[in-house]
Specification:
By secondary structure, the chain is of the alpha+beta class. The chain has helices at 114-132, 205-217, 278-284, 286-289; strands at residues 26-28, 40-45, 48-54, 57-59, 61-62, 75-80, 83-89, 101-104, 143-145, 152-154, 160-161, 166-175, 178-183, 195-198, 220-232, 237-248, 260-265. The chain has 2 domains: 5-132, Nucleoside Triphosphate Pyrophosphohydrolase (Alpha-Beta Complex), CATH 3.90.79; 166-289, Nucleoside Triphosphate Pyrophosphohydrolase. The structure holds zinc ion. Zinc ion is lined by residues 136, 138-139, 141, 154, 156-157, 159.
């Protein structure tokens, strides 16, 4: 049977970047568990994964390192299809040999498998942590990795630091047969998505959803219900998806964050985020949430 677009990802857990998308292809380990020997390479350059062409499509390079970098030594991150997988951080201005191809991680329709895209996303999160955990945030001295973990310890003040994932909310707000869509000034013309924002001190997720909606659009909401979540490695967020009903207010752009917000009927939707995002997953199922 042909897959209809809304069948791509049955549940939010199936969305790219969630670990479930790696299926049984990958087991995350820590760098000190590197078994040695040949394996595969996960080279990341900016927001791109670098792959080689194979008859089966783009895959990870094998054998000798496809690129030499001096700034970031290869970092073992786990087993990809039972082989050691090592991450490479490639400087943005480095010229690539002809056998390597850039695969943009934020492409609307990526050319790589969902498993590979999700692995590269995890690599992005790891790079973000590595970049931000060189020095102790308590005393500023150098940190070393804890045995068997991704966490690090400061040799000077003994503080331990662990990878940080930032919780965010994103939500579909329903009013009759319309949904609330919002647009940020930096997005391409005509593209809209859902209200979203970072959790603040002391908030539960539902409170963040209500606050962000009022702050950004002046709309009050009720019946805020959690639907599912998506790991979002740009650079290290967890997007928690909600649906809510309109409770009151007229649209007014209260802060500087949005260029526009509007109510849209489901048969008159503007350009939307790609299918691989939880925002689009919620929008594509809006009809099911309208009571
Ligand atoms: Zn310290």
């Amino acid at each position: 049977m042909m897959k209809t677009p809304s069948d791509y990802y049955l549940l939010p857990a199936d969305l790219p970047f969630n670990r479930a998308s790696l299926k049984n292809n990958f087991q995350l380990k820590s760098p000190d568990q590197d078994p040695g020997g040949d394996g595969v390479w996960l080279p990341l350059q900016g927001m791109n994964l670098l792959t080689v062409s194979t008859p089966q499509g783009p895959e990870l390079a094998e054998g000798d390192s496809p690129l030499q970098t001096t700034t970031f030594p290869p970092l073992y991150i786990g087993q990809w299809r039972n082989r050691p997988c090592r991450l490479l951080h490639i400087p943005e201005d480095m010229k690539l040999p002809p056998q390597l191809h850039r695969q943009p991680l934020r492409a609307a329709k990526p050319d790589i498998s969902i498993a590979l895209l999700s692995l590269a996303g995890m690599g992005q999160m790891i790079l973000h942590w590595e970049d931000n955990s060189q020095l102790c945030s308590t005393c500023g001295k150098k940190m070393t990795r804890l045995k068997g973990e991704w966490g690090k310890e400061c040799q000077h003040c003994n503080a331990s630091h662990y990878p940080r994932v930032h919780p965010c909310v994103i939500g579909l707000v329903i009013k009759g047969d319309e949904i609330l869509l919002a647009r940020k000034p930096e997005w391409t013309d005509g593209r809209y998505s859902l209200v979203a924002g970072f959790v603040e001190f002391g908030e539960c997720l539902e409170e963040t959803m209500a606050r962000e909606t009022v702050e950004e659009t002046n709309i009050q909401i009720k019946n805020i219900r959690y639907i599912g979540s998506q790991s979002w490695p740009f650079p290290s967020q967890l997007m928690c998806g909600f649906v809510a009903d309109y409770a009151g207010g007229e649209i007014k752009l209260n802060d500087q964050e949005l260029a526009d917000a509007k109510w849209c009927k489901l048969d008159q939707l503007p350009t939307l985020p790609p299918k691989r995002s939880i925002a689009r997953w919620l929008i594509d199922r809006a009809e099911k949430f309208i009571s």
